[in-house]
């Protein structure tokens, strides 16, 4: 009876994850935000647990959505980190009133030792979410491996689910701002 209860709990947990649009550990790069509120600062935890068809991972290149001007990569033992910037065609005015003429377009994590296939790792980026409730931000990730690469950059078309794609980009949908958050940092 104990084994059948465990099997039922595992099956129920998998069904619940799928109902929420989340798959159990699979061949994808997933993102879990600590908040999705419009205009809030968020920590986005990206996780992966596989290489490219069995080959160890050597680098992860995160492309930031155009709606973001910057991201703060979290220091991570075993990885070197580099920000790639681009000049903007026209300066942007930030919510605080300041203007910027360039933005961080990519953040590259390069493994000091390749990450073996079947070993899970999590990379965290800090971002300021735009004040755009209902907007979905895709974060394409190019996973480079000792042999080959996987470009997790597919974005679902209207009416399509990320589960319908072979290499979906991790994405976050912005929700209503949390008015109760006092930002007392």
Number of strands: 11
Beginning-to-end CA distance, first to last residue: 50 Å
Taken as a percent bin, the fraction of beta residues is 35-45%
- Average pLDDT, rounded to a whole number, is 85
Rg calc: 18 Å
Secondary-structure-derived class: mainly beta
Number of helices: 1
Largest sheet: 5 strands, antiparallel
H-E order:
HEEEEEEEEEEE
What overall form do the CA principal axes indicate?
globular
Give the neighbour order of strands across the main sheet. Answer: 5-6-3-9-10
Helix share, percent: under 10%
Brief write-up:
It contains one helix and eleven strands. It has 185 residues and is mainly beta. Strand 9 (141-145) and strand 10 (149-152) form a beta hairpin.
Ordered list of secondary-structure elements with their pairings:
Elements: H1 2-19, E1 30-33, E2 41-48, E3 57-63, E4 72-73, E5 79-93, E6 99-115, E7 121-128, E8 136-138, E9 141-145, E10 149-152, E11 171-173
Written description of the protein model:
There is one protein chain. Helices cover 10% and strands 41% of the residues. The chain has one helix at 2-19, and strands at 30-33, 41-48, 57-63, 72-73, 79-93, 99-115, 121-128, 136-138, 141-145, 149-152, 171-173. Strands 5-6-3-9-10 form a five-stranded antiparallel sheet, with no helix packed on it. The chain has a four-stranded antiparallel sheet with strand order 1-2-7-4, with no helix packed on it. It has a two-stranded antiparallel ribbon with strand order 8-11. Strand 1 (30-33) and strand 2 form a beta hairpin. The longest helix is centred in the N-terminal third of the chain and has 18 residues, at 2-19.
């Amino acid at each position: 009876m104990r084994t059948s209860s465990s099997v039922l709990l595992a099956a129920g947990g998998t069904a619940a994850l799928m109902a929420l649009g989340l798959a159990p550990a699979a061949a994808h790069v997933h993102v879990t935000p600590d908040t999705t509120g419009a205009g809030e600062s968020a920590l986005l935890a990206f996780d992966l647990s596989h290489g490219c068809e069995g080959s160890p991972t050597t680098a992860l290149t995160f492309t930031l959505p155009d709606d973001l001007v910057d991201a703060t990569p979290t220091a991570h033992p075993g990885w070197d980190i580099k920000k790639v910037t681009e000049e903007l065609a026209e300066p942007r005015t930030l919510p605080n009133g300041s203007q910027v003429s360039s933005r961080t377009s990519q953040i590259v994590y390069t493994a000091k030792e390749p990450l073996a296939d079947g070993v899970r790792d999590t990379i965290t980026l800090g971002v300021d979410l735009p004040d755009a409730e209902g907007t979905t931000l895709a974060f394409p990730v190019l996973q480079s491996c000792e042999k080959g690469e996987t470009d997790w950059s597919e974005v679902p078309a209207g009416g399509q689910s990320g589960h319908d794609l072979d290499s979906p980009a991790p994405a976050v949908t912005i929700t209503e701002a949390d008015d109760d958050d006092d930002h007392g940092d």
